[in-house]
Amino acid sequence: MSTEKNEIDKLIKESLTSEDAKFYEELEEQNLMAKLGQAHKGKLGWLVRLMSVLHIVIFVLFIFCTVRFFNTGDTKELIQWAAAGFIAWGFMAMMKLFIWMQMDKNDVLRELKRIELQIAALSQKVD
């Protein structure tokens, strides 16, 4: 499968102008850190940055709840700290899901741009 993809990419690059080929190279698959950086720079980047800061704050709250849970002996307090810890954990999970969905959205948009570029190259070839 990888060799087929490389051959197709090679054929596409040969049919493109040098300017289009550079743009096509920029649309290559990104690693995880590049995807995360791209999520912070997008239209909703301010929200992703805010959620990242809140995630750190809630993680500290989760650690605090966990420490208090193990340091108490009263059953009522055990239940309260466990509930607070589970709520904090749930919020962290929801924020991570939002950020991962933004990263996935950026991947889909990048693939759509690649398809648009391939269609444009094909239409130039036909003309």
Q: Write down how many β-strands occur, each being a DSSP E stretch of 2 or more residues.
A: 0
Radius of gyration: 23 Å
- Overall structural class, as computed from helix and strand content, comes to mainly alpha
Q: What amount of the residues lies in strands? A: under 5%
Total number of distinct structural domains: 1
Question: In a few lines, what is going on in this structure?
Answer:
This protein is 88% helix and 0% strand. It has 127 residues and is mainly α.
Describe this structure in words.
With 127 residues, this protein is mainly α. It has one domain. 88% of the residues lie in helices and 0% in strands. The protein has five helices and no strands. α3 crosses α4, α3 packs across α5 and α4 packs antiparallel against α5. The longest helix is centred in the last third of the chain and has 52 residues. The model has no long low-confidence stretch (mean pLDDT 84).
